[in-house]
Fold this protein.
Amino acid sequence: MALFSFIHSLNTNFGTSIFEPVAIEIAKDRFQKVQSQAVISDVLSEAAQYEIQHIMDNLSAGVALPNKIQEVEMIRACCQQLPFRKTKLTRVDIYLQDSENNFYLFDLKTAKPNAGGFKEFKRTLLEWTAAILAENPTARVYTVIAIPYNPYEPKPYQRWTMRGMLDLEHELKVAEEF
């Protein structure tokens, strides 16, 4: 147990002290705006919050499969409706914006995140989407869980706990993909 705790601590420290700064450095020449630990908003549309809850309920109940493209459009349709509520969103580990109105928001995670966390990870990604679209409704928003390395290498990254909550093609980038 002590060894597991030590290794988990190393993984977390590598994320903030190695992977995040390296990603920021690589992105500097390719993006108009590059920021680490970005605070993006403190308000969300009440309608967007209800839509996010609706998406979460459907995913949790297994009524719907994750579909990032569809979810973004559902949020886009209501993200500017009044009233707005004050909220505290999770900081964006890596925030990138290019000159073509594309926003890339990354949440760095350890290689083996806790199964219970995926519901909150998904909510965070949806809330970030709503925050960006509230300020810029025509933006193309890409919110991603990034896992800097694959502990199962050379086999593909396999975490069954993510299925059903994350759109694995659009919301998860592991190792080289990130």
The mean pLDDT is 88. The longest strand covers residues 140-147.
